[in-house]
Task: inverse folding
């Protein structure tokens, strides 16, 4: 068994961070920055969801709800109660984590499809609350006038500034995920994914580990929600519905289960794809569907798995060429 | 190999659909919900803008230059609307933006357009869009307040005192409910019941029975298809004879189809375009409305709707402002928009002032009744 190599993770993360910071200078137009910001927000959630789905093997069809809880909590705190933005942000992440902890108590006793059903139901309940608690959430027509993010006396007015902040956040989240998976907890999570009985016979506290990873991934979704609300300064329940939960799952699966980098790639890919396909005008949705189907058919292990296979194939043909 | 062929085909398509540049066209942008839940609004808007644009360009454009509209579909999604507006402002460098179609999307993108100092003419109805007034934000869809006022004027004329309301729990119903709860008491009426139904509910007998228990003189139902059709049917099934008002949200033939015989005798406020042919010849807008309805029907083989009218009004207001300003600079267009007075559009007569960026008065709505499966005008 290899010892966790934190240095290697840090090096990867630094490289990733440098790449993220360089992206805006390679873009032909500032408009693409908005896509990158939304992409990195989605990536934060996808990385968190992958910890739960890819590594620990627990399906969640309700992650949009945690995203929404974070967004609404900070929106309500900063506008309705006039609290400072950092307090609102802390409240958003805490609320998402706290609700996840409570939800985890009964639901994580369930397995497979039943867990998926329970989280699906939870997501729908939260969505109904967003729609019906009109006095608090503004109801279906949305919540207007959320302040743009300001931290330590600096307001992130420009998209470029906001993107740089997102680059920092995403890099930290990726680093956290990479290190976690190489830690004792990460090994325990992977063990319980394969067999809960075997893992518990080896002394892994199944319930505590599952709850931990569920709360962590909800907190990351809450964090993304908080940053989303202060970026867009407008939120509506439609953004946090069932279809977004499904989209998040697709990002994780398309990117590659149990691969942190895969989730990042999946999130950026799925966020940018519809925008790139705008050139096709009326048939863009068909092309979008076709690309998804082809990706799943030819890259069953997702983007991450596909790149791995491709590089292996290249190496092998290299060897064959050398032999002949 | 097959994949490669498909990819090549896609690339070819991509190249073929690239923009064809005419000499110095004036560039406008539009963000419309052509697909998704609000496509019933966005599609006629898109069609109308394309049709009217062809007419404007055939007549020589404006300022001697052709007009070009970059139309983006937001799929009724908030994030996509924000990205689309970003793209129009930063990449397409448009002079003004038409749309978005829905109130939520309009509220979400307003800040972006205003920050970039690009005028935006929303096709949605929410009052919050132009209240408080933002110098760069205008809207063409009439506020719910005007529709409610039209119903209440009619109710007062009939001598009704007690009114009950039944609204759908979505953005449209919620906005209507707020205005109803404000204007009913303010108009000297008593509100006996305030019931709500879900957008996907298939039975409203419980709400109707409860409302009936409070014995109102009339009931006002606020929603878009299919909910109100269910309300109309349940009302007949329960044998209720209390008059029922609907909102302008169902002012289309589709509603009469859905409700069938149960639609008989219902009343609703609607834009004049719904009954263009039946308007008296003295109506100032009649010729224009009939012409629009006719050319839409010919080109798209579909009945005209109020919603397409919002597309017509937003485009024509923008073009008129460009002509008035003698410039396609966003700031100049904004200034010219604010000075437009008595502009006859499809939705009504628009008069903008620095305090009013919605532009319409109560005459934007007329009162319609449904008789033998068709509209009849019951009050101007």
Result:
């Amino acid at each position: 068994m290899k010892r966790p190599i934190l240095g290697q993770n840090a090096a990867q993360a630094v490289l990733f961070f440098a790449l993220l910071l360089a992206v805006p200078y390679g873009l032909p137009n500032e408009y693409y920055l908005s896509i990158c910001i939304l992409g990195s927000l989605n990536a934060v959630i996808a990385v968190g969801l992958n910890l739960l789905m890819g590594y620990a093997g627990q399906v969640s069809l309700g992650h949009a709800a945690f995203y929404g809880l974070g967004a609404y909590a900070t929106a309500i705190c900063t506008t309705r109660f006039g609290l400072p933005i950092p307090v609102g942000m802390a409240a958003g992440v805490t609320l998402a984590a706290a609700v996840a902890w409570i939800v985890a108590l009964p639901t994580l006793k369930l397995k497979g499809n039943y867990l998926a059903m329970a989280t699906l139901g939870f997501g729908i309940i939260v969505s109904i609350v967003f729609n019906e608690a009109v006095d608090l959430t503004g109801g279906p027509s949305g919540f207007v006038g959320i302040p743009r993010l300001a931290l330590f006396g600096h307001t992130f007015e420009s998209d470029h500034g906001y993107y740089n902040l997102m680059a920092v956040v995403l890099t930290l989240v990726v680093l956290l995920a990479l290190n976690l998976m190489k830690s004792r907890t990460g090994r325990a999570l992977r063990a319980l994914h394969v067999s809960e009985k075997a893992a518990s016979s080896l002394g892994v506290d199944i319930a505590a580990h599952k709850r931990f990873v569920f709360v962590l991934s909800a907190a990351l979704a809450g964090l993304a929600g908080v940053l989303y609300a202060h970026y867009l300064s407008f939120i509506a329940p439609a953004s946090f519905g069932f279809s977004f939960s499904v989209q998040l799952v697709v990002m994780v699966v398309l990117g590659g289960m149990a691969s942190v980098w895969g989730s990042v790639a999946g999130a950026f890919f799925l966020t940018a794809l519809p925008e790139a396909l705008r050139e096709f005008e009326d048939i863009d949705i068909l092309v979008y569907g076709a690309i998804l189907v082809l990706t799943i058919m030819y890259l069953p292990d997702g983007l991450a798995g596909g790149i791995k296979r491709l590089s292996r194939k290249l190496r092998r043909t290299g060897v064959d060429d050398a032999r002949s | 190999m097959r994949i490669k062929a498909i990819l090549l085909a896609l690339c070819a398509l991509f190249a073929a659909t690239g923009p064809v540049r005419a000499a110095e066209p004036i560039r406008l942008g539009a963000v419309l919900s052509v697909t998704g839940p609000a496509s019933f609004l966005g599609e006629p808007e898109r069609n109308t803008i394309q049709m009217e644009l062809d007419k404007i360009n055939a007549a020589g454009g404006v300022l001697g230059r052709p007009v070009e509209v970059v139309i983006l579909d937001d799929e009724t999604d908030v994030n996509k609307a924000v990205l689309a507006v970003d793209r129009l402002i930063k990449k397409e460098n448009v002079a003004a933006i038409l749309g978005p179609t829905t109130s939520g999307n309009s509220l979400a993108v307003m800040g972006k357009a205003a920050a970039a100092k690009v005028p935006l003419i929303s096709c949605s109805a929410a009052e919050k869009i132009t209240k408080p007034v933002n110098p760069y934000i205008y809207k063409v869809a009439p506020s719910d307040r005007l529709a409610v006022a039209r119903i209440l004027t009619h109710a007062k004329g009939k001598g009704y005192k007690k009114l009950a309301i039944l609204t759908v729990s979505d953005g449209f119903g919620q906005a209507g409910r707020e205005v109803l709860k404000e204007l009913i008491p303010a108009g000297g009426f008593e509100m006996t019941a305030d019931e709500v139904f879900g957008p996907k509910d298939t039975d409203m007998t419980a709400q109707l029975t409860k409302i009936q228990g409070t014995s109102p003189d009339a009931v006002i139902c606020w929603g878009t298809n299919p909910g109100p059709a269910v309300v109309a049917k349940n009302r007949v099934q329960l044998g209720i004879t209390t008059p029922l008002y609907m909102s302008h949200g169902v002012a289309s033939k589709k509603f009469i189809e859905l409700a069938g015989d149960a639609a008989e005798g219902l009343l609703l406020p609607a834009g004049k375009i719904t009954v263009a042919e039946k308007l008296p010849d003295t109506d100032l807008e009649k010729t224009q409305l009939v012409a629009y309805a006719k050319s839409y029907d010919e080109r798209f083989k579909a009945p005209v709707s109020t919603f397409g009218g919002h597309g017509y009004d937003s485009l024509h207001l923008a073009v008129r402002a460009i002509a008035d300003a003698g410039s396609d600079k966003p700031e100049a267009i904004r200034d010219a928009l604010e000075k437009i007075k008595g502009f006859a559009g499809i939705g009504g007569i628009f008069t903008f002032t620095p305090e009013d960026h919605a532009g319409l008065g109560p005459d934007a709505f007329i009162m319609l009744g449904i008789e033998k499966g068709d509209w009849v005008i019951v009050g101007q």
Summary: Chain A has a mean pLDDT of 88.
